[in-house]
Write a structure and sequence with these properties.
The complex is a heterodimer of chains A (about 500) and B (about 290). With about 500 residues, chain A is of the alpha+beta class. Helices cover about 60% and strands about 10% of the residues of chain A. Chain A contains 16 helices and seven strands. Chain A is globular. Chain B folds into two domains: about 200 residues, Rossmann fold (3-Layer(aba) Sandwich); about 80 residues, Alpha-Beta Plaits, CATH 3.30.70. A six-stranded mixed beta sheet of chain B has the order 6-7-8-3-9-10, sandwiched between helices. A four-stranded antiparallel beta sheet of chain B has the order 2-1-4-5, covered by helices on one side. Chain B has a four-stranded antiparallel beta sheet with strand order 12-13-11-14. In chain B, strand 4 and strand 5 form a beta hairpin. Chain B is about 30% helix and about 30% strand. By secondary structure, chain B is α/β, with parallel strands linked by helices. The interface between A and B is medium-sized, with 24 and 23 residues.
């Protein structure tokens, strides 16, 4: 750290620091106006101040390191009598001090206004927030230094920040199309996204604590703390390369470094192509031609922007074609292998409870048929709605072998119909499968499969399920819903 | 003393400076000239510590200007395109120099007056020439041991140039400052420099005392009884040759008396000797290497 340079930065930015400081604290404390619950206000205020601090960790590197991207300012700032390592350390320390002062200033006022409620938890949040600020400043500074000019650097830093979201979107879309039974509850996909985004990992912990001020049960996820620290350490090495050992002549040049445009453009193109490829496998190529050509257009334009010249290069198109071929190969491989066998391994028994939820709107005269399957003319106004929630403790699964076998057979058939693109349709029946740690409401960490187009369970199978689980039949009759136990319903129907 | 030894600098695969050696003595004003793209600005940026050399060393009073940031506090670098933060004033710029250099408030006021500047002036709204004055103001106000001026002398109006020349002379007299000036305006350099270097193809191809060099290269206009070709002068170090009938116009490097004696042996009808200026010296040096074609 260089004291003279720090003082210069402080004096040079004092008006901006004061203005944003007041604004930061003011915005953070708005939740205390017209408050009914001190804890709720404190929770909201802590969340707001953390998000504002996080935003500053994106903005400050752009403001303080902009000089490295202009030839003229490079001449001024890199000829200063200061080591480059000291210069970057001082800039980061200054940015950290500014953000920290705002964040802690807001924190002190939050404690006063909430009359020191949940003090221990608040200290924990503030400490974690401070660590998050430090990590994100280092990481975002590195992202901002990848480019070689102002425009590119902002674009590249933004693209890297958004990349995990696109990855999440792409993997979700790819899985949704190609993995039979896929639902949004696939925690591993979300895990990948969070693990690639230090902001998400740090935000997860801080916001989780801020949202549960009263709860002593809620604690931070250590992995989401350790990994960002590792990212920060690696970023320090990155900063050494991108700032301390940086060739000053890179200023205002094309951003053609290994992690700059070439990587980011191709990564974005590939992730989007992956989504397209999944659509091609399920719906055919014809419907996707427009989108492929549109993406090629955007890809070529992105290359023009990167190279700052409107010049067609065959190499770019070849890159696009290779990405297209790889993405299609992956999609076809996923389809033909039942998503690399993952579709067939739905019954993941790593948690304590397996929960099969079966629902169908069945033909009242034959509960083993879908309501829409009824022959013409339709004799009844409404179908019979059946819902079964079969919660099975994994350790006792031996006692439920028959029931598990029934459900799995229906799931397997649904999976086969999915991959065979079968014409047979059961529109009103579905089975969902959870793998939970605790009974009751589904947690976001549950692995969750959802199968449509499931052949309705026959009445014999329903009776077998009823031996272990409660099965109710709901009928809409004479302007009201009536609920029956399965056996009661079958008996009553028999009497009719 | 500024000493450059075996300096190499590449921009990706392009070699800009190759095994460059140069010495600029204390109290000297060194004119660095070269055609566009010769590497003048690169050399100045290397001396200022902005660029890292790929090979070789640059030392000022024995200290490496790249590795030892302390010595950079004694270097004032005025680049060809100066940077001024948006909305800054002459006064607000002072903060950086006060914080990082050996800033002299008294000198600052003196040069402000000399360059006809006001502290409250918004720099971004100033004309190019006035911005130059601001750069020179700060370069002069930090007690440098070495001033690097990358075309910063160009574009100054005559009075400001005169003032600046006077200020430099004073600094050289009082503090033994060295100055390296790169410029395209060789006539202006001629007035102020005492030594020079011509940068070409990554090397200093000609280097030395300006006065001595100018005395060593002269223009000779000779009339003979018969027509002569360039071949007839192969014993001379000819930088330039022109012939119109029996009249030969030659630029010859060499001691003037010796050259005249040798030309006399060729029995000329008439001979006239003219002195070269710095601009001609530069042109003939490059021409002799086939660079001006």
């Amino acid at each position: 750290m260089n004291r003279k340079y720090f003082n210069f930065l402080l004096k040079d930015h004092k008006i901006a620091v004061l203005f944003f400081g007041v604004l930061f604290i003011g915005i953070s404390l708005t939740s205390f106006i017209d408050t009914y619950s001190r804890i709720d206000s404190l929770s909201t205020s802590l969340t707001i101040s953390f998000i504002l601090a996080l935003m500053l960790t994106y903005a400050l590197p752009i403001l303080l390191l902009a000089f490295i991207h202009r030839k003229r300012s490079v001449d001024l700032y890199l000829s200063l009598p200061i080591r480059r390592s000291e210069q970057i350390t001082t800039i980061l320390l200054f940015a950290f001090c500014v953000t920290s002062v705002f964040y802690l200033g807001a924190g002190v006022l939050q404690i006063i206004l909430s009359r020191a409620v949940c003090l221990g938890r608040v200290f924990q949040i503030l400490l974690l927030g401070e660590l998050s600020i430090a990590i994100m400043l280092i990481f975002n500074s590195l992202l901002y230094l990848i480019g070689n000019n102002l425009f590119d650097s902002v674009v590249i830093a933004g693209a890297y920040t958004v990349l995990p979201f696109l990855l999440l979107l792409s993997l979700s879309s790819f899985s949704y199309e190609l993995l039979a039974g896929y639902s949004g509850g696939f925690d591993w996909i979300e895990d990948i996204y969070i693990l690639l985004s230090p902001a998400s990992m740090l935000g997860y912990n801080v916001l989780r604590l801020a949202g549960n001020l009263n709860s002593n049960v809620v604690s931070i996820r250590m992995l989401y703390l350790i990994l960002p620290v590792i990212v920060a350490v690696l970023s320090v090495f990155g900063l050494k390369k991108e700032f301390v050992e940086r060739k000053s002549e890179r200023a205002e040049q094309l951003s053609d470094g290994i992690f700059a445009y070439p990587t980011i453009i191709n990564a974005y193109a590939f992730l989007i192509l992956l989504m397209f490829a999944a659509e091609v496998v399920t719906d055919g190529f014809k419907s996707m031609i427009f989108f492929y050509l549109l993406l090629l257009f955007v890809y070529v334009v992105a290359m023009f922007i990167y190279r700052r010249e409107i010049k067609f290069k065959l190499r770019s198109v070849i890159g696009y074609i290779i990405s297209t071929v790889i993405s299609l190969a992956l999609a076809f491989a996923a389809w033909n292998t039942h998503f690399f066998s993952l579709a067939d391994k739905y019954e993941v028994g790593t948690r304590r409870y397996l929960t099969y939820s079966y629902s169908v709107t069945a033909d009242p005269d034959d509960l083993g048929k879908s309501f829409q399957d009824n022959k013409e003319p339709i004799e009844v106004d409404s179908g019979a709605y059946i819902y079964v929630e079969a919660q099975i403790p994994v350790k006792d699964r031996g006692q439920y072998e028959e029931q598990i076998s029934i459900m799995n057979r229906h799931i397997d058939e649904a999976i086969d119909r999915y991959y065979e693109k079968s014409d047979i349709v059961y529109p009103t029946s579905s089975i969902s499968l959870n793998n939970r740690e605790e009974l009751g409401r589904a947690d976001s960490d549950d692995t969750y499969y959802f199968y449509r187009n499931v052949q309705p369970l026959s009445e014999e199978e329903l009776l077998k399920m009823a031996e272990k689980f409660d099965i109710k039949v709901e009928m809409y009759d004479k302007d009201e819903w009536k609920t029956f136990e399965l056996e009661e319903y079958l008996k009553e129907r028999g009497n009719d | 003393m500024l000493k450059i030894e075996h300096l190499n600098k590449n921009f990706k695969t392009k070699e800009v400076l190759k095994d460059l050696n140069l010495e600029v003595h204390d109290g000297s004003i060194f004119g660095l000239v070269g055609i566009n793209g010769a590497g003048k600005s690169t050399l100045l940026r290397l001396i200022a510590g902005v660029y890292e050399p790929e090979g070789g060393t640059i030392t000022l009073n024995g200290k490496d200007t790249w590795k030892d940031p302390e010595i950079r506090s004694e270097i004032a670098f005025v680049s060809d395109e100066q940077y001024y933060p948006l909305g800054c004033t002459i006064q607000s710029l002072k903060l950086l120099y006060e914080s990082m250099y050996n800033f002299d408030e008294g000198a600052w006021h003196k040069y402000m007056e000399m360059f006809d500047l006001e502290p409250g002036m918004s720099v971004t709204n100033l004309s190019k020439g006035m911005k130059r004055r601001v750069s020179l103001l700060y370069a002069l106000s930090i007690h440098p041991k070495l001033i690097l001026l990358d075309e910063a002398y160009d574009g100054l109006e005559p009075l400001a140039r005169l003032h600046f020349k006077q200020a430099l002379t004073d600094l050289i007299e009082d503090e033994n400052v060295s100055v390296v000036i790169s410029s395209h305006n060789l006539k202006e350099l001629e007035d102020i420099c005492d030594s020079f270097g011509i940068l070409e193809d990554g090397h200093i191809i000609s280097y030395g005392d300006l006065l001595e060099s100018r005395e060593l290269i002269n223009k000779y206009q000779v009339v003979f009884r018969t027509e002569h070709t360039r071949e007839d002068f192969k014993d001379f170090d000819i930088l330039h040759f022109e012939q119109e009938g029996r009249v030969c116009k030659l630029v010859i490097r060499g001691n003037e008396e010796e050259v005249i004696a040798k030309l006399d042996q060729m029995d000329p009808v008439l001979m006239d000797v003219l002195q070269t200026n710095f601009e001609e010296l530069f042109i003939y040096e490059l021409e002799s290497r086939g660079e001006t074609k």
